[in-house]
Amino acid sequence: MIFRYLTRTERILLVLMLALVFAQVYLEFEIPGYMSSITDVLTSYGTPDDIAPYAWRMMLCAFLALGALLANRLLVSYVASGLACRLRSLEFDKVQSFSSADINRFSAASLITRSTNDITQIQNLLTIATVVATKAPLMVVWGLYKILGRGWEWTLATAIGVVLIILIEMLMIFIVVPKYRKMQWLTDNVNRETSEHLAGMRVVRAYNAEAYQRRKFDKANDELTGTALFAARSLSVLNPMMFAVQNILTLSFYILGAVMISAASMPDRLVLFSDMIVFSSYAMLIVVAFILLGDITVIIPRAAVAARRVSEIIEYEPDIRDGEVSESPEGIRGEVEFRNVSFRYGDGGYVLKDISFKAMEGETVAIIGSTGCGKTSLVNLIPRFYDADEGSVFVDGVDVKDYRLDVLHSKIGYVPQRATLFTGSVSDNVNFGAGSSDRTEDDVRRAVAIAQGTEFVEALEGGYDGSVSEKGVNLSGGQKQRISIARALCARPEIFIFDDSFSALDYRTDRDLRDALRRETAGTTTIVVAQRVGTVMDADRILVIDNGELVGNGTHRELMEGCPVYREIALSQLSEEELV
Ligand code: CTP
Ligand code: MG
C-alpha cells in the first residue's frame, strides 16, 4: 500500500535493484561449484597452476557479488530516503488541513510519532526487507536445485535443520511480533508525556509537582521499556538458537561425511569428500536464507503497523472540506450572520444553542459572558475551525461551508485568545501568511502602532527585526497579545475577530488600543469577545451569552434595562455611575 507513494523513477530503480539481487545470488551460488572443482583438482594431486583458473573465476564471482551488493544498497537507500521524505511532507500537508477536532482525534503526540518514528520504520523495512525478501527465497530455491537428488543423507540433514529453524521462527512470530506492534502506541504515550511536561514545566515547578509528573512519565516509559526489553530478550534467546542449528548442521555434515567416507572405497571417497564440501556450503546458504527470512518476519509486521498509521493520516478525509465559492456576492463586505446555530464538541452536550445574530459591515459587535459560556466556541465557527452541527454561519451572505477555505480565511483577521507567535523577527510575526510579500515595512509599522506596540517593539534589541523566540517566550503576555493583534491589522481583512485579546493589557492601553482601532479601521467589521464591561460598553451591539444561549442582543443602554444577566455582569465590575 505504501508503494503507491513511489515515483516512476523509484519504481524503475526498484526493478533494477531486484535484478541486482538476482545477479548477486547467482554469483554467490557459483562459488561452491568452483570450490568443488578445486577440491577435485587437489584430491587428484593437481598442481597450483591447475587450480589457478578456478581460483581466479571464483574470486571474480566474489567481487562481482560484492559489487552487486554495494550497488543494491546505494539504490535502496536512495529510494527509501526519497520515499520517507515524500511521506513526511504528505503528512505535513495533510495535517495542515486538519481542523482542531481532527487533531484532537489523533492527538498531537501521535501525529509527531507518526511523522518521525513510524516513517523511519517504513524506511528500514524498505532498506532491509526488499533486499532480503527477494534474496532469501531465491537462495532457497537455487540451493535446493543444486543439492536435490545428490545423496539423500545430506538432503535429509538439511531438511531437519530447516524445519528446526522454521519452528524457532514461528516462536518469534508469536512472541515478539505482537510486542513490536504494541511499541508504536507506547511510543505515542511517552511522546505525549514528554511534550506535556515541557509545555507545563513552570507550573510543575511552581507546585512542586515533579514527583507526580515523574510517576506519570515513568509509567509510560516503563511500559515501553518493558515491552522493548521483552522483545529484545526473546530475540536474544531465539537468534542464537538459530545459529546453533546452523552449526550443528555443519557438524552433522562432517560426521555423516566421516562415516560415509570411511565406509567407502578409494575413488568413491574422493567423490564423497567433494560432495561434502559442496553440500555443506549450499546447505549453509539455505539455512542463512531462512534465518534472514526470520529477521524480516519481525520487521515486516512492525513496519506494516507503521505504514497503516502513516497512511491513516495521509488518506484521512478532514472534517472540514473545501468549498467552491471563491468570491462573495458583489456589494456585500464584512457581513457575518449566525442563523440558528447549535454546536457541540464531539458527542458532548450542546455548547452553543440556537444562536442567531447578524453583524453588518463596519459594525463592532461585542460578545460577553461568564467563562466557559461558549464565546470562543462561537467565534471559532466563523473561520471554520469547527463546523456548526445545526444551522449555518454566513460571511458576506455565503455559507462558510461553501467558501474555498483560503478565500474565507483571507477575509478574516483572527486574534486567538492565547497569542501564538512563531520563531523569527517581530516583522515576520506581524507580516504573516499569504500576501505578506505585497505588504511593506510601513504596513508593519502602522499595524504595530494601532496595536499600541510601537514603544516596546522599538525598545527591543533590533527593533522590528528583533527576534521572537519559540512561542514568543521572550515577550510578556501583553506584548505577545499586541503583536498578535498587529498581525491581524496588517493583513487588512474585512472582519476582525478578537477573542478576549485585550485581557492582558492594562486599562489605559486597552482604551488607547480601542480608540486607535475605531479611528484606523472604521468600515471593518469587528467581533470582539471580552470579559470587561468597560471594553464592550461602546460597541454598536453587545451579545450576551449565558451557558451557550444568546440571552441579550442590543446596545449597552438597552441591555442595562432589559437583560438581567448583562446587568449583573456590569454591576459586578463597575459602579452605577460609571455605567451610564
Ligand atoms: N469545550 C470542550 N472542548 C473544547 C473546548 C471547549 O468541550 N475543545 C467546552 C468547555 O468545557 C466549555 C465550553 O466548551 O464548557 C465553552 O468553551 P469556550 O467556548 O472556550 O468558552 P469561553 O466562553 O470562550 O470561555 P473563556 O471566557 O474562559 O475563554
Ligand atoms: Mg474563550
Task: Characterize the structure shown.
By secondary structure, this protein is α/β, with parallel strands linked by helices. It is built from 19 helices and 12 strands. The strands form 3 sheets. The chain has a 6-stranded mixed sheet. A 4-stranded antiparallel sheet has the order 2-1-4-5, with no helix packed on it. Strands 7-8 form a two-stranded antiparallel sheet. The radius of gyration is 36 Å and the shape is elongated. It starts with 7 loop residues before the first helix and ends in a 7-residue tail after the last helix.
Distinctive features:
19 helices; 6-stranded mixed β-sheet; 12 strands; ABC transporter transmembrane region fold; alpha/beta; 2 domains; single chain; elongated; Rossmann fold; 4-stranded antiparallel β-sheet; binds magnesium ion; 580 residues; binds cytidine-5'-triphosphate
Question: Within the CATH hierarchy, at the fold level, what is the topology of the largest domain?
Answer: ABC transporter transmembrane region fold
Count of alpha and pi helical runs: 19
CATH architecture of the largest domain: Up-down Bundle
Q: Helicity level, as a percent range?
A: 55-70%
The CATH class of the largest domain turns out to be Mainly Alpha
For the record, the count of structural domains works out to 2
Radius of gyration: 36 Å
Low-confidence stretches: none
Strand content: 5-15%
The CATH H-level superfamily of the largest domain is ABC transporter type 1, transmembrane domain
Q: What structural category characterises the helix and strand content?
A: alpha/beta
